[in-house]
Amino acid sequence: MRLDLDAYRNVGDAFTERAAQCSERTAVTFFEGSAAQDHESLSFAELARRAGVRAAALEARLAPGDRVLIALPTCSGFVEVYLACLLAGLVAVPVPVPGGSATATARVAAIAEECAPRLAVTTGPDREALVAFLRERGLDDVVVEGVGEAGPGEPPALVRRSPDRDALAVLQYSSGSTGMPKGVMLTHGNVLANTAALGEGSGVGPGDSFGIWLPLHHDMGLFGQLTTALLFGAPIVLMPPTRFVRRPVEWLRMMDRFGTTVTAAPNFAYELCVRAVSDEALDELDLSRLRIAFNGSEPVHVPSMTAFSKRFARAGLKPEVVSPAYGLAEATVYTSTNRIGVPPTILVMDPRRLEAAERPELVVTSSGDGREITGVGTPARMEVRIVDPATCRTLPDGAVGEIWLHGANVGRGFWNRPDLSEKVFGVRLADGGDDPGDWLRTGDRGAVVAGELFITGRIKEMLIVNGRNLSPHDLEQEARATHPALTGFVGAVFGVAAPEERIVLAHEVDPRTRAEDLPGIAAAVTRRLTIEFGVPMRNVVLVRRGTVLRTTSGKIQRNAMRELFLAGGLAPLHAELEPGVRRILAAGAA
Amino acid sequence: MTRTPRTADDIRAWLIGRVAHHMELPATEIDSEASLTENGLDSVHAFALCGDIEDALGVAIEPPQLWDVDTVTLLTAYLVDLAD
After folding, report:
1. What ipTM is given for this predicted complex?
2. When you count CB atoms within 10 A of the terminal residue's CB, does the N or C end of chain A come out lower?
């Protein structure tokens, strides 16, 4: 079987050829839960037929390069419409399912406003909510349709010339605040290169069997798993994320039932399984066929990874299966992973050298307070530099700096934002000689030791909790609206390592507020932010007016606020802190 | 899974046990009069708790209902009503 993904003009051609080679093989299965006898599945031939029928219908009514919003849950319609867009030269824009929560609907509407789609495809029940939101924003000309069925018959041939490698394939919205979404422009070439690099770097291939609960609008689910499986001609089993969080054991049962060899999930999922799966359920599981379980899209916490491997060893899970990975939406998804069968390198680092203001570096320590940090393997088909973000000069092995990347899977920039794109996707190394200036600044901090990449934290202020990227700006805005004593005053949201990431809000209060009202205000903020954003928000520090640091232009200095908080310099009027955060404060003061 | 709780007291004790389990805290640390969010529950825990409730009590419940009732004490009363 030819699997040279560099040889294809576009994703549609690669998929079409693979589907012809694997026609009777099962492509996609939708797991209906362990109690169900039957699970809907599509062969490669049937999936290609349906995608072809939909592509012809879309081609007839839309122009090349038109954006199509895919606002669908995990279902066959999602996979069919996604492939149809790629076949017909349309730009797929996968987004969260609207109507799930007010923030999700607001985000979808903001994305629609940003990328001006001609068509939005959703489910019947969500259609009305989405139409109302789009109307509210004056986006009356977006056609909103229920996904429906592909229809019978063989697909008519497409009329237009198929897209080339440089044509846009997907706008991937995974960063930016709710109000100001940023869409990464991914070409057909980027998507093909991503699967090629992931295959080469990890050893995953056509003989594998994939299985995930990840949302399909998320880079790890869409490109790390679904697209990769389709381009390899390998089967994939899908279940919706809400089924997983409700009963984590169902993910494991699904992999057992379908003999899954490759999966992926953020760190929190592995942690959740350790807690939520009973001994009785564990005894009935067989995870011995799993070859690699990527742990990525949020910081990898070594103890939770180790606890998972240990607990599920009884179910036949091999110790080297859980594999820390690093990637980001700006690079389609893949950057680095370990190879199948290679256990992660875990080093115990001196935390003081790691976080030193001057020349931070990875130094192995044997003293008791070391911080465990895992390697994420050696990047394949990807150039990586560790760079001093202030001077833009390359740093030596072991030094901690910003991670810069260069490779065929790095996207073309952010949609409609040339200035920002140049700052993120078009940077130049100061010591790079005739460097063409097309490095990607990741905003992540890390180091390279003996060729292996280690991630140590972030430079950008984005928070990553439960696998989701959150903008501090969004949390601050919501906090301000929670109570009249906060409205009109300033707050700063930042993460602290305790040792896993915890979110802290420091907020100024109206000077007229009575002291006895402060605990109630803190509780109201905790409640509202937890419910609206779904993340624990238990550290609320109420401070005097003027305490929150800002630049002369009014920009909130979140990193400086973190330093001040950790140094005990905030002089709070009232503070609610969880035990782990209290401990690091006490340690800092000692 | 634990045995199916029956009375209001059983349900309450069982709920405290589940919240403590998800938060990895001793049951004595759970304040049943405080908001679930103040006890540290986030949306992932809330879904898992809904799954627990469905499995043990046979009551279908979604996270927004948990947030609406807000405390272990009020959730107990809510579940007793539903189970009747």
Report:
1. 0.82
2. C
Chain B contact for A531 (CB, 8 A cutoff): yes
Report whether B49 contacts B29 (CB < 8 A).
no
Interface of A with B in 196-255 (CB under 8 A): 242, 245-248
Rounded to whole angstroms, the Cα distance separating A60 from A377 reads: 46
Short-list A220, A261, A256, A258, CA closest to A241: A220
- Best of B2, B38, B42 to substitute, by most chain A Cβ atoms within 10 angstroms, is B42
Q: Is A457 in the B-facing interface, judged by CB distances under 8 Å? A: no
**Average pLDDT across chain A, whole number:** 92
CB A225, CB A212: distance < 8 Å: yes
pLDDT digits (tens, 9 = 90+) for A313-358: 999 999 999 999 999 999 999 999 999 999 999 999 888 888 777 8
The predicted pLDDT at position A137 comes to 87
Which tens digit of pLDDT belongs to each residue from A516-549?
999 999 999 999 998 888 888 899 999 999 899 9
Q: Which residues lie below 8 Å from residue A39, measured CB to CB, with a gap of 6+?
A: A29, A30, A31, A32, A237
Q: Rounded to two decimals, what is the model's pTM?
A: 0.89
Counting as low any pLDDT under 70, the low residues of chain A are 1-2, 100-101, 175-179, 589-590
For the segment A98-156, what is each residue's pLDDT rounded down to a tens digit? 876 677 778 888 899 999 999 999 998 888 888 888 888 888 889 999 999 999 999 99
Record: contact A538-B38, CB cut-off 8 A: yes
Cβ separation of B37 and A245 shorter than 8 Å?
Answer: no
DSSP A215-261: -TTSHHHIIIIIIHHHHHT--EEE--HHHHHH-THHHHHHHHHHT--
Residue from A244, A245, A251 whose CB has the most chain B CBs within 10 Å, to mutate: A245
Nearest residue in chain A measured CA to CA from B54: A246
User: Which residues of chain B have a CB within 8 Å of the CB of A501?
Assistant: none
Are A270 and A300 spatial neighbours (Cβ–Cβ below 8 Å)? no
Specify the DSSP element, H or E, that contains A272: helix A267-276
A413's CB contacts (< 8 A; 6+ apart) are A184, A185, A421, A422, A424, A425, A426
Residue type, A227: T
DSSP A137-178: TT-TT-EEEE-----SSPPPPP-SPPP-TTSEEEEEEEEE-S
Domains in chain A (CATH in brackets) are: 5-249 (3.40.50.12780), 346-458 (2.30.38.10), 463-589 (3.30.300.30)
> Could you identify the residue written with the tokens 């782990």?
A580
The pLDDT value recorded for residue B1 is 47
pLDDT greater than 70 at residue B3: no
The pLDDT of residue A433: 82
Strands, E, within A64-126: which ranges? 67-71, 91-94, 119-122
